[in-house]
Write a structure and sequence with these properties.
44% helix, 11 helices
């Protein structure tokens, strides 16, 4: 199987970052992505025809996350905690304050692979990697307790994570994060129930065979997180972002121009990036 486990989806994400970087009009630059993706990453991408057809969504998500992260840093975040960090290279490719502390949390195998590829590279901030299975609730709570004590204002990032969790698991994670006052912001990506059903139909089989089925999409959109202590303060549609940045295929671009205004999707986008803020007591 090309996709052996959930960590292999990180190779897929790296492929699309590499392809965007190699464009003359690139939206962002990740010179490490091609090395991180490797040949297997390209093979995985080419095997998932639906993903290839909608590569624009990967580009848009990365772009939006970069924008939100930059915004939170301007607002004084001194710690970024990247949950299920995969092969993300932002500590190397973004212009970050040297004093910023960045924590990457992921499974041992993908973290070992990443460290080997990047062993001669230097991050632009203080970088720490934590090998941890986030499904281990007790251990993640211990980690969150330690990190909360080290920060005044923290941004939590979980790109490409929650779609692989059940609603109960997402709620548990949300509550664990909200328990810590310094954890001010949480940046994540969301999918609508209709999109989840489509993804399960078009891409679900190889992921299920790799024990990484797609599971989560909330009918209420970002408001799902309100009952766990979070409020949405920024929601951006992948589709409208890709349309504005001229990354949509011709036919989809036609529909974008018919519906340029994303107000109708502002609360429950088909797919998008969502910035949450911890509710103050």
């Amino acid at each position: 199987m090309l996709i052996r486990n959930i960590s292999d989806t990180a190779l897929l994400a790296a492929v699309y970052r590499a392809r965007e970087t190699e464009r003359a009009d690139a939206l962002f630059s990740d010179p490490l992505a091609r090395r991180l993706a490797g040949e297997r990453g390209e093979q995985i991408a080419k095997s998932l025809l639906f993903s290839e057809k909608h590569a624009w969504s990967w580009f848009a998500r990365t772009y939006l996350f970069d924008q939100f992260i930059t915004q939170c840093l301007r607002e004084g975040c001194d710690l970024v905690v990247n949950l299920a960090a995969g092969l993300d290279a932002r500590p190397y490719r973004l212009a970050l304050p040297a004093s910023l502390k960045w924590i990457e949390v992921d499974l041992p195998d993908i973290t070992d692979y990443k460290e080997e590829i990047l062993r001669d590279e230097k991050p632009s901030c203080v970088l720490e990697r934590v090998r941890l299975d986030l499904a281990d609730v007790n251990e993640r709570r211990k980690l969150f307790q330690r990190l909360a004590a080290e920060s005044r204002k923290t941004l939590i990032v979980s790109e490409g994570l929650i779609i692989y969790l059940t609603a109960e698991e997402v709620g548990s994670l949300a509550a664990d994060l909200a328990a810590h006052e310094p954890f001010r912001y949480w940046l994540l990506d969301i999918a609508s129930p209709a999109l989840l059903k489509l993804l399960q139909k078009k891409m679900g089989k190889p992921l299920e065979e790799a024990a990484a089925p797609l599971k989560f999409a909330a009918a209420e959109g970002p408001e799902f997180f309100s009952k766990f202590g979070w409020k949405p303060i920024g929601v951006r549609s992948n589709f409208h972002t890709a349309g504005r940045l001229k990354r949509l295929p011709l036919m989809m671009s036609f529909f974008y121009h018919l519906q340029k205004n994303e107000d109708f999707q502002s609360k429950r986008p088909w797919a998008g990036a969502c910035l949450l803020e911890r509710r103050q007591p």
